[in-house]
Amino acid sequence: MSEVGTKSPAVRVRSLTKAFGPLVVLDNVSLDFEGGRVAALLGPNGAGKTTLLKAVLGLVRPDEGSVLIDQTAIDSVGRYRESVGFMPQLPRFPSHMTGHELAAMLDSLRGFQGSADEELIDAFDLRDELNKPFKTLSGGTRQKVNAALAFRYATPILILDEPTAGLDPVASLALKDKVRRSRDEGRTQLITSHKLGELQALADDIVFLHEGRVQFTGSLEALLEETERSTLEEAIAELMGGVGRGGVPSSADGPAPLGGSDDRPAQSLRVIP
Amino acid sequence: MSTVKTLLIRQIRDLSRARAVAGYGAFMAMATWGLLHFGGGAERAMPSLATLVVLVVPLVTILITTTYLYHSGDFIELILSHPVGRRPVFLSLYVGLVTTLVGALLLGILLPFALTGFALGAVRGLGLILVAAALLTAVFTSLGFLVAFKVDDPARGNGVALLLWLTMGVLYDGVVLYAAYRFAAYPLETPMLVLMGLNPVDVARVVVVMALDASAMMGYTGAVFQEFFGGASGIALALGCLTLWVALPGLAALRTFVRKDF
Q1: Are B136 and B59 in contact, with CB atoms under 8 Å apart?
Q2: Beta strands, E only, chain A
Q3: CA closest to A61 among chain B residues
């Protein structure tokens, strides 16, 4: 376990419930995302991953429950988002705008006057592309701009929704390097992806959601050990099979810590009631 | 306030480049020029222009508003993922749309007047017609916001917007006319005034009729309106009624936006 893993949780989710009409998307979800770790949110389509991330961002208003960032409940004004960087799933930007214009606008909205983190702009060789309107850029280039903007403000918390979707292998590698370096700098990162192979190389902790409920939380090692599998892909397949056969073994009550803290080691498969 | 300013500048720049807004301004310019050129002078063209404004402004405004908001959904989501409140975002979206649409409308109407050499100050009622048109723009922008934030599906939302315009701009008058015919034996002055107040398009229509001093053309109803709205206080009341039509759906839209899931 890394040293940063023993920090206080940076993001806490408490009894989060959200329904869209009759469809319950999040059902009493409680989680602790510890500081300085990379947590992967996994689950089949419609499991509630994006809704959970959007609830943390305040984009989705929960019916019940709360989200705390560094011990403070998030408010409707949204100042807490100064410490959050977000990479949405689809890079849909205003077609007439250029990347430079968008970055300048976001700088102004944030009141940002410091030195921006432009590592990814260089890694993706984006300097020239930022002067072109988005409508002239390819989907992959827009996704690179999307990633560069998420990391631009060097925020302590990063939320990345399918970050490598649409990226070529070189760009994908550069982004994964950035995620690793950010972890080494102590940032908390929440990532969703269907590319389990790359998540295995990045994630410290795994959250497996199914039909809005947390089916597993814990470290990657714990998951592999519990499922007696050697890869994340096989372990998730095992979990999904378990869910299909009537659920995985139930254990602890209350919020599920990720990565394991000293008092609550997350070393077992668990269903959060 | 800097949030509103930043977003407003971007939005006005973005909307000014939008084909729909440019097309709206161009259509109003061509229609106004046509009426001035073929209508036999500014005074005679004014009633036609007023009718055009009352019919076209609500339709174009509500459709551009809903289309723009549906199109901007992802961008609004991106903005809201940064440290900004929802109220400033709403305000900048609203003011940006109203400003651009009113700008296109004013430019479209005033440019032909200027080009054909009419002294704007000498054209009776033009100022009041433009004020009514601007308020009508704000009313239907408010209604467009309410529809777009209440109805998630763009196709359904645009359908609701069209239906709203059809009801307020066309069908409502038919119902009022039928009621007037059906209950002709009763004193209808007060119910008619109330029914007019319940429809912003009718209120705007009353304002332009009064502005053009054309109530005599409307017979008995015109006389009632002339008596009620003829003075400055009557016009002020009608404009106040339109302002209320701006505020109520606008506030309902704001409430919806603040609670909306993205």
Answers
A1: no
A2: 9-20, 23-34, 38-42, 64-69, 72-73, 84-87, 157-161, 188-192, 205-210, 213-219, 256-257
A3: B261
Window 65-124 of B, Cβ < 8 Å to A: 72, 74-75, 77-86
Among A84, A94, A109, select the one facing B84 at the smallest CB separation.
A109
Q: Which of B77, B84, B260 sits opposite A88 (nearest CB)?
A: B77
* pLDDT tens-digit map of B117-141: 776 666 677 888 899 999 999 999 9
For A130-167, give one letter per residue: b (16+ CB within 10 A) or e.
beeebeebeeebbbbbbbbbbbbbebbbbbbbbbbbbb
Q: Do A20 and B261 touch (CB under 8 A)?
A: yes
B contacts of A60 (beta carbons < 8 Å): 261-262
Which of A20, A59, A82 minimises the CB distance to B80? Answer: A59
Which residue shows structure tokens 């100050």?
B121
The reported pTM is: 0.85
Q: Are A54 and A84 in contact (CB under 8 A)?
A: no
Residue type, B176: V
Question: What are the tens digits of pLDDT across the range A47-62?
Answer: 999 999 999 999 999 9
